[in-house]
UniProtKB/TrEMBL annotation:
Signal peptide: none annotated. Catalyzes the irreversible transfer of a propylamine group from the amino donor S-adenosylmethioninamine (decarboxy-AdoMet) to putrescine (1,4-diaminobutane) to yield spermidine. It comes from Candidatus Acidulodesulfobacterium ferriphilum. The active site is at D157 (proton acceptor). It is an enzyme of class 2 (transferase). Keywords: Polyamine biosynthesis, Spermidine biosynthesis, Transferase. Gene3D superfamilies: Spermidine synthase, tetramerisation domain, Vaccinia Virus protein VP39. This is Polyamine aminopropyltransferase. PANTHER family: SPERMIDINE SYNTHASE, SPERMIDINE/SPERMINE SYNTHASE. GO terms for cellular component: cytosol.
Length: 281
């Protein structure tokens, strides 16, 4: 008998993926955690019945959330990542030559542990000496450090805006993040599908425009996410996010073994379809 995983991505639309076996299942203190082995995409991490990533295409999301903001910044030495306990965004951030320290704040330590066990190639950066993993609520952590201005970049690698992640999509949280950034800091977050989350993207875009000198939206194509078209919202205090910073002039991007991101993709990801431009007006 065939086994399939179904994710209802809206009330009228969903995705199904054929499952070879269930490798892990548990209920942590915060959410349901499942690791599947799939025929089409390899291993797949699912939290509360929502797909986080698969082996076959995880690099798209992780490269685009991690590398676009960092290569826009002149010298991103200190990074804060909220969420992302799987370590994928950390792996990508560590490819930037200026990075000296990364704080990863993950509310659910079990996501970190499960990722290390079942996704070692994604979680490999978690053992880097420059990385500190902090088991904490990202909202509360930011409240404690918001007046410090200690970070060059803050990246929000959250799940969908429900449950523990709901507060990561609120104005108060974005304002706290801005205060925790240095004077030339940059902020980026995943902000869902332009097809199914128009109001959310519109609201977040307005907030980021209020807070940052240089706000923008960019996107990537991610096959297992709702609609495949996925948005990221970015705010910069100084640097133009659409451009790779001049400090990387002569840098050999081919040395990074990238599968999706490139200088050309960096620039083109900000060229938005007209219907997305309408959302952001």
């Amino acid at each position: 008998m065939e086994a399939w995983f179904f994710e209802n991505q809206t009330g009228n639309f969903g995705i199904k993926i054929r499952i070879e076996k269930i490798l892990h299942h548990e209920y942590s203190n915060f959410q349901e955690i499942t690791v599947y082995d799939t025929f089409e995409f390899g291993r797949m991490l699912v939290l509360d019945q929502a797909i986080m990533f698969t082996d076959k295409n995880e690099f798209i999301y992780h490269e685009m959330l991690g590398l676009v903001p960092l290569f826009s910044h002149k010298n991103p030495e200190r990074i804060l990542i909220i969420g992302g306990g799987d370590g994928g965004v950390i792996r990508e951030c560590l490819k930037n030559p200026f990075v000296e320290h990364i704080d990863l704040v993950e509310i659910d330590k079990r996501v970190v542990d499960v990722s290390k066990e079942f996704f070692p190639e994604i979680a490999c950066g978690l053992k880097d000496r420059r990385v500190e993993v902090i088991a904490d609520d990202g909202i509360e952590f930011l409240k404690r450090v918001e007046s410090s201005g200690r970070y060059d970049a803050i990246l929000i690698d959250s799940t969908d805006p429900v449950g523990p992640a709901e507060g990561l999509f609120k104005r108060d949280f974005y304002e706290s993040a801005e205060r925790a950034l240095k004077d030339d800091g940059i902020f980026a977050a995943q902000t869902e599908s332009p097809f199914f989350n128009k109001n959310l993207i519109r609201d977040i875009n307005k907030i980021i425009k209020d807070i940052y000198e240089k706000p923008s939206i960019y996107y990537a194509m991610i096959p297992v996410y709702p609609s495949g078209l996925w948005s990221f919202t970015i705010g910069s205090k100084k640097y133009q996010p659409q451009n790779i910073n001049e400090s990387y002039k002569g840098f050999d991007f081919t040395s990074l073994s990238l599968k999706y991101y490139s200088p050309e993709i960096h620039a083109s990801s900000f060229i938005l379809p007209n219907f997305v431009k309408e959302i952001c007006k």
